[in-house]
């Protein structure tokens, strides 16, 4: 600890001990605790206490009966724990302080105990100090373990959870055993503390009260999740009959916690592969739990790396059960697949599905989400029932839309429950999209496209559902079969596209902005993927979509304008924008996309469209867009000039991105970002660097970059710094014959830059000569600037000393400012 | 509860029902089924043939005729009152009030009457403005009709179809209406009380409560739970109904009004942006107010600020102005605007800024102002008469134009039939804000009527969507027994004066009885019990005889008996009194106690006890007294 802090510490301890000086801000206490943790991790706690007796005084002060704030008391308990984590310091404090703080005589019995923060501090203090065997004896002697047992049922969830974790920690610590090796694996020989805890768990598992069972199960789950020592196997062998006993009860108590425990055991490397009856227990649990409770267990089992095939099959059947019910109720796929024919546990599932809308929707959404998680995993069940699942997803979507024709009473009831249910629609569309990774029988794929079109068309589709429908449609179009060597859409997809485009047209005119927005996003995706293909181009150009997109650049909603900007950029890149003077649009009043977007960049009142315009410009420059290639310098100069005056830092940062692209194109590639990339056919500028910099000077790139270097927004300054550093590296690598001269020009530029750095950016730099730029760059401390920018903004203020000063200042102990008042 | 209901209209959204209840005859609504007009040629195109074929359909070449409510089922001159629930459900009123001998009163709210008048005025105007129109009647001959192609062949009761009424008849019919306000209680002959309640569907639209002292009948017709312009629906007052008559549900249960409004706006914008015109066939009041409000919010965002909106109807001006003055009948939001003061509907601003213009007809100012592309709202939604016919002719040939159907009353395909082939785009966005089946089931759960009476059509899914079991009135649910005989005590006369003299006796907890001798006076369905006049002093034989003619006999009454006879105890008592050899038989109605020795039968039934013995009066009296011990007297 530095001397300045040591000096401040006594005053602070006095403040903390004084009940009349309330600490307004308890984040200070947290910071203080963190600081002490860092100090004790680096050095001896004992030494720290001896050098700063005020700390022990503070802790002793807590023992006096008084009206202390619960925050300070909690803090002191945790601080004591931090100190006592080291065994020598523990011995030092053990005499009087520790028993009185953590034992019966401490806050435990007092009024302060009613505050959850004190109970939490007590637990955390013990958690910190329980690091060594001496601590175990102490815990046993002061009867803390019994208190922890009771705190498992605390009214505060934080306290209860921390108590459970502390038990796990103590159990683990006691099983590490003394220095002479781990304890015997015979449970009878376990240390007293471990025996006590295990005994408590056994008792709880036998209890009839669900909360107690839950607590025991949670402790076990954490234990098996964190500790994989051999003794955990002994523990499981001893407790598994009790756990299995829970399955005999009806209903199974604490089912969620039970599932967590079983999965935790199954994942534990020491336990799963052994023959401790785990697989049988899992199989039994799967069959005993209700479909809603069994779903997470089934998913967990299927995610396990190694588990018996029969159990996996059972788990998968459980997971598929609700969808099997749906298929059966609508008799869509009579026995199409062995897994989805819906024979096992059918009634239980139907019972769960039908009583209420909430139960039905919840179960279906969870099932779909579980299957969606499972699909991309390497250990997903094989064979994967792609066709029945596709059928189920389509049927669910039809049920929600009222277009399914159920054949049974269950089906009619399901239809009534699911009709217009947005949650199920969203989940089913997501799932359908994920299923696009696989194939399906052609007639089912036709049905998929039909149901997607139905959703896109329906006036009742909510905006979020519509967005998902667009996403799923894109994924299915991506996966539609391709003719080898041809990237165009296949004929069926093209037919679909012809039906889709009128729908998209209408959606682009929707009164709801979210719909217009997702329509434009979909268009951008589609154009990006198929914009170069004849079939797509033909269909798109025959529709009103490009024209509507152009009109949406003037939408009142800024998000829509931003999406329209992106879509226009994409359309224009592919030459799909309506040309200003085409014969279909006589008059030619429309401006070119470039001038439209420049107009948005310079005039739009919202940031999103301007940012989108900058992205499009950067992309155009990268792709050598036809409108840009014509006069690249004029384009870059124009964009940079507008961007430099933008109030949105993201626009300015994107301007630097554009500048970098221009720089790279002018000077040749930077150090190739990808080592495997085909060497670009870059002709390194044969001309001297200064000459190569001419175009950069002409577009005033340097003025833009220097201005950005002193930007008040750090990301912009950092980006500019990187750009200039890149340029300087380029400069060093090219053997430039010109030496930087110190000329009056250089001096005046440097002077101007200093003024800019000081905040006065009124004066422009004027026309810069490449030589001057090079000289200025060379003389600047860009590395230093980068280092300063990399520091977080509060690095100056974030010292322990300032923390102590702040804390003292809030209570007015540091009287420096008093003189100013009088 | 005794109640007779006659249904005079097969159209559940244009109801005409007659309710006989407590000796009053009440007609509930008189909707006019105008779908019959779809069989006729559009009016200005009528020439002088009897029938004309048009793109494979045969139409009657004549002035359109309407299908009236059934007039034969009951004598409409006996109808005491007509209750109107909304302005769409009164279009048959002149036919009922003017030609059936009807002498009663019609009750309706003020906006209903005013806007109903506008609708009738528009209808009469549309039809009368084409003077050369003639009537065709030969086709109605049954022998000819059955030779005609469908749908003419299948049209029923064509002989009862009638031409439109005249303005005179309208005025005369409307003069019979008495205005009422929400929650106002109206006494009908002292027998029942009727009360209109807000139904949330249209300006001034109402549901009706018809109640006597002990029974309550609710008439729910054309109600809406959506937040549109009218005052919200009053659901609470419908609670505790014995009978709830449910009509006027949405005609398009699968179309959600919100989605349809979005669809309407999207299609409108799409057409106009492509340089096309939009035609919206509509009624001059109702949904059009909501559409204009949506467009008011939408046109700027869709970049349509320069597109003119035209509203053409002989009553356009009145309709737009009326809507602004019925503040008390509007939803809360619109009511508060009035105090700002601002016009409650934003169409006022559209008119001020010249974005919405209205004209009585195509002729005159409109022809000089007309600019394209534009949006035109005009009637009639059947496309058979009104200015809409002209626009269909004008714009039908270009695929740039669109006709958007928003009124759900007519099948758009049938409406378009005489205009085929048609190049213009047709969009069907029916906006029907009336209750859908999900809302009905919630309403019924909330209101808990003992019985629900509804048109047959609502008890099964629509024929085109027979799998949609959700598209019907769900009569399951936790309501109490559906049988009619459960509650409803008969009416107890009201007692005065006599009350002091009564000596009630509690026969079981909570129920007391007393005998009373009185004279019952009944007038205007009010019943009053009065003390009987004292018998006149016997002054002479003749006089006494006369007095007994006038005054009912007031004999001294025998005590009344009540209670039931517990058979086992009765048998024990008999045994105590020396009867032996007793046998008890159970019968369907009670028991028979056989005294075999005495050859005597005691028949004990729920409401009577007979002692049958052979000429042994002593025995009979003895047994009678034993029986009486178990009964209470008063």
Automatic annotation (TrEMBL), chain A:
Keywords: Cytoplasm. The keyword Oxidoreductase does not apply. SUPFAM superfamilies: ARM repeat (SSF48371). Gene3D superfamilies: Leucine-rich Repeat Variant. Its main location: cytoplasm. It comes from the Eukaryota. The keyword Cytoplasm applies. GO terms for biological process: cell population proliferation; DNA damage response. InterPro entries: ARM-like, ARM-type_fold, BRAT1. It is found in: Cytoplasm. One of its GO terms (cellular component) is cytoplasm. Belongs to the BRAT1 family. This is BRCA1-associated ATM activator 1 isoform X4. It comes from Ursus maritimus (Polar bear).
UniProtKB/TrEMBL annotation, chain B:
Residues 288-416 form the Beta-Casp domain. It is found in: Cytoplasm; Nucleus. One of its GO terms (cellular component) is INTAC complex. It comes from the Eukaryota. Residues 524-549 are annotated as: Disordered. Keywords: Cytoplasm, Nucleus. InterPro entries: Beta_Casp, Integrator_9su, IntS9-like_C, Metallo-B-lactamas, RibonucZ/Hydroxyglut_hydro. Component of the integrator complex, a multiprotein complex that terminates RNA polymerase II (Pol II) transcription in the promoter-proximal region of genes. Component of the Integrator complex, composed of core subunits INTS1, INTS2, INTS3, INTS4, INTS5, INTS6, INTS7, INTS8, INTS9/RC74, INTS10, INTS11/CPSF3L, INTS12, INTS13, INTS14 and INTS15. The core complex associates with protein phosphatase 2A subunits PPP2CA and PPP2R1A, to form the Integrator-PP2A (INTAC) complex. INTS9 is part of the RNA endonuclease subcomplex, composed of INTS4, INTS9, INTS11 and inositol hexakisphosphate (InsP6). Interacts with WDR73; interaction is required for the assembly of the RNA endonuclease subcomplex in the cytoplasm. Belongs to the metallo-beta-lactamase superfamily. RNA-metabolizing metallo-beta-lactamase-like family. INTS9 subfamily. This is Integrator complex subunit 9.
């Amino acid at each position: 600890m530095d001397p300045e802090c040591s000096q401040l510490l006594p005053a602070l301890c006095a403040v903390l001990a004084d009940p009349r000086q309330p600490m307004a801000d308890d984040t200070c206490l947290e910071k203080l605790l963190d600081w002490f943790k860092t100090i004790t991790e680096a050095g001896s706690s004992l030494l720290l206490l001896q050098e700063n007796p005020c700390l022990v005084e503070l802790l002793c002060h807590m023992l006096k009966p008084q009206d202390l704030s619960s925050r300070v008391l909690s803090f002191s308990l945790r601080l004591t724990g931090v100190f006592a984590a080291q065994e020598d310091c523990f011995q030092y404090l053990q005499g009087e302080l520790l028993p009185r703080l953590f034992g019966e005589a401490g806050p435990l019995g007092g009024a302060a105990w009613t505050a959850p923060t004190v109970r939490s501090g007590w637990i955390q203090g013990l958690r910190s100090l329980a690091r060594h065997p001496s601590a175990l004896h102490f815990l046993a002697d002061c009867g803390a373990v019994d208190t922890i047992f009771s705190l498992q049922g605390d009214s505060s969830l934080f306290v209860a959870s921390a108590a459970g974790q502390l038990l796990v920690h103590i159990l683990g610590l006691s099983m590490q055993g003394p220095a002479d090796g781990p304890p015997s694996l015979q449970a009878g020989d376990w240390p007293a503390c471990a025996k006590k805890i295990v005994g408590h768990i056994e008792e709880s598992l036998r209890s009839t009260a669900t909360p107690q069972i839950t607590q025991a199960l949670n402790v076990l789950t954490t234990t098996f999740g964190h500790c994989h020592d051999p003794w955990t196997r002994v523990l499981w062998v001893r407790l598994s009959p009790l756990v299995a006993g829970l399955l005999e009860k009806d209903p199974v108590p604490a089912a969620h916690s039970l599932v967590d425990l079983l999965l935790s055991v199954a994942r534990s490397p020491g336990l799963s592969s052994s023959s401790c009856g785990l697989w049988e227990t899992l199989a039994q649990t799967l069959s005993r739990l209700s479909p809603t409770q069994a779903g997470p267990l089934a998913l967990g089992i299927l995610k396990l790396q190694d588990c018996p095939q029969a159990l996996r099959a059972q788990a998968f059947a459980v997971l598929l059960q609700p969808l099997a019910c749906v298929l059966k109720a609508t008799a869509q796929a009579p026995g199409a697949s062995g897994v989805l024919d819906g024979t096992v546990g059918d009634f239980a599932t139907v019972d769960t599905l039908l009583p209420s809308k909430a139960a039905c929707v919840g179960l279906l959404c969870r099932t779909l989400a579980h299957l969606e998680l499972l699909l991309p995993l390497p250990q997903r069940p094989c064979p994967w029932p792609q066709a029945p699942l596709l059928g189920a997803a389509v049927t669910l979507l039809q049920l929600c839309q009222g277009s399914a024709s159920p054949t049974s009473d269950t089906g009619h009831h399901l239809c009534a429950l699911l009709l217009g249910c947005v949650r199920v629609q969203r989940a089913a569309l997501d799932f359908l999209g994920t299923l696009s990774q696989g194939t399906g029988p052609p007639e089912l794929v036709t049905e998929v496209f039909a149901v997607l079109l139905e959703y896109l068309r329906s006036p009742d589709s909510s905006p979020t559902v519509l967005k998902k429908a667009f996403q799923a449609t894109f994924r299915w179009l991506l996966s539609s079969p391709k003719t080898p060597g041809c990237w165009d859409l296949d004929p069926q997809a093209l037919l679909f596209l012809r039906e889709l485009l009128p729908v998209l047209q209408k959606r682009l005119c929707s009164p709801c902005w979210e719909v217009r927005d997702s329509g434009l996003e979909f268009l951008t995706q589609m154009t990006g993927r198929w914009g170069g293909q004849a079939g797509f181009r033909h269909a798109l150009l025959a529709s009103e979509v490009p024209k509507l997109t152009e009109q949406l650049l003037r939408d009142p909603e800024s998000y829509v304008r931003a999406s329209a900007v992106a879509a226009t950029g994409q359309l224009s890149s592919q030459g799909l924008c309506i040309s200003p003077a085409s014969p279909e649009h006589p008059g030619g009043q429309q401006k070119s996309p470039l001038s439209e977007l420049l107009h948005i960049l310079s005039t739009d009142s919202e940031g999103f469209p301007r940012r989108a315009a900058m992205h499009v410009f950067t992309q155009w420059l990268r792709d050598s867009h036809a409108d840009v290639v014509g006069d690249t310098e004029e384009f870059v100069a124009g964009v940079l000039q507008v961007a430099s005056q933008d109030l949105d830092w993201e626009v300015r940062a994107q301007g630097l991105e554009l500048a970098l692209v221009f720089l790279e194109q002018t000077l040749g590639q930077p150090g190739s970002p990808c080592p495997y990339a085909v060497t670009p056919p870059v002709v390194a500028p044969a001309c001297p660097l200064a000459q190569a910099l001419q175009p950069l000077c002409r577009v005033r790139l340097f003025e833009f970059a220097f201005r950005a270097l002193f930007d008040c927004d750090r990301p912009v300054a950092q980006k500019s710094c990187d750009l200039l550093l890149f340029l300087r590296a380029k400069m060093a690598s090219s053997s430039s014959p010109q030496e930087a001269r110190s000329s009056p020009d250089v001096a005046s530029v440097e002077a101007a830059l200093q003024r800019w750095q000081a905040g006065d950016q009124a004066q422009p730099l004027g026309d810069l000569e490449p030589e001057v730029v090079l000289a200025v760059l060379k003389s600047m401390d860009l590395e230093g600037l980068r280092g300063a920018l990399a520091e977080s903004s509060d690095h100056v203020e974030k010292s322990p000393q300032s923390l102590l000063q702040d804390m003292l200042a809030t209570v007015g102990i540091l009287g420096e400012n008093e003189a100013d008042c009088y | 509860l005794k109640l007779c209901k006659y249904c005079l209209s097969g159209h559940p959204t244009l109801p005409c029902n007659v309710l006989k209840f407590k000796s009053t005859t009440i007609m509930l609504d008189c909707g006019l089924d105008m779908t019959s007009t779809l069989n006729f040629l559009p009016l200005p195109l009528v020439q002088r043939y009897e029938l004309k074929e048009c793109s494979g359909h045969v139409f009657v070449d004549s002035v359109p005729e309407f299908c009236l409510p059934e007039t034969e089922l009951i004598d409409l001159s006996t109808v005491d009152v007509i209750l109107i629930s909304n302005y769409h459900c009164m279009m048959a009123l002149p036919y009922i009030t003017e030609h059936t001998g009807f002498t009663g009163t019609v009750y309706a709210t003020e906006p209903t009457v005013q806007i109903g008048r506008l609708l009738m005025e528009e209808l009469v105007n549309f039809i009368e403005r084409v003077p050369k129109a003639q009537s065709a009647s030969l086709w109605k001959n049954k022998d000819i009709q059955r030779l005609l192609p469908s749908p003419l062949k299948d049209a029923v009761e064509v002989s009862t179809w009638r031409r439109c009424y005249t303005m005179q008849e309208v005025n005369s019919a409307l003069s019979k209406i008495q205005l009422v306000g929400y929650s106002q209680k109206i006494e009908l002959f002292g027998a029942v009380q009727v009360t209109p309640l807000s139904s949330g569907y249209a300006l001034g639209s109402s549901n009706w409560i018809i109640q006597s002292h002990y029974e309550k009948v609710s008439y729910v017709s054309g109600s809406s739970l959506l937040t549109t312009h009218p005052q919200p629906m009053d659901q609470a007052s419908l609670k505790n109904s014995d009978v709830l008559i449910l009509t006027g549900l949405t005609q398009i249960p699968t179309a959600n009004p919100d989605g349809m409004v979005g669809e309407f706006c999207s299609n409108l914008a799409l057409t106009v942006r492509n340089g096309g015109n939009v035609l919206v066939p509509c009624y001059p009041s109702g949904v059009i107010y909501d559409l204009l409000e949506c467009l008011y919010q939408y046109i700027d965002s869709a970049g349509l600020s320069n597109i003119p909106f035209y509203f053409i109807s002989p009553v356009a001006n009145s309709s737009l102005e009326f809507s602004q003055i019925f503040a008390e009948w509007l939803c809360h939001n619109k009511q508060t605007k009035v105090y700002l003061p601002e016009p409650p509907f934003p169409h006022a601003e559209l008119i001020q800024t010249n974005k919405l213009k209205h004209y009585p007809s195509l002729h005159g100012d409109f022809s000089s102002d007309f600019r394209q592309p534009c949006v035109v709202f005009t009637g009639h939604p059947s496309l058979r008469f009104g200015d809409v016919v002209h626009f269909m002719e004008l714009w039908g040939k270009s695929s740039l134009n669109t006709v958007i159907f928003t009124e759900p009353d007519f099948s758009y395909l049938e409406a378009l039939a005489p205009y085929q082939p048609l190049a213009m785009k047709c969009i069907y966005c029916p906006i029907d804000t009336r209750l859908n089946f999900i809302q009905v089931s919630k309403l019924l759960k909330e209101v808990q009527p003992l019985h629900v009476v509804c048109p047959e059509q609502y008890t099964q899914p629509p024929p085109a969507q027979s799998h949609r079991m959700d598209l019907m009135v769900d009569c399951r649910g936790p309501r109490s027994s559906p049988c009619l005989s459960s509650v409803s005590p008969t009416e107890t006369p009201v007692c005065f004066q006599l009350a002091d003299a009564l000596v009630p006796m509690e026969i079981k907890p909570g129920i007391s009885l007393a005998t009373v001798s009185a004279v019952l006076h009944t007038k205007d369905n009010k019943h009053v019990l009065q003390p009987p006049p004292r018998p006149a002093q016997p002054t002479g034989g003749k006089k006494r005889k006369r007095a007994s003619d006038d005054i009912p006999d007031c004999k001294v009454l025998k005590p009344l008996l009540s209670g039931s006879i517990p058979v086992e105890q009765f048998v024990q008592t008999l045994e105590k009194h020396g009867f032996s050899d007793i046998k008890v038989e159970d019968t369907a109605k009670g028991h028979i106690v056989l005294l075999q020795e005495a050859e005597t039968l005691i028949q004990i039934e729920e409401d009577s006890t007979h002692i049958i013995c052979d000429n042994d009066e002593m025995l009979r009296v003895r047994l009678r007294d034993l029986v009486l011990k178990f009964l209470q007297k008063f």
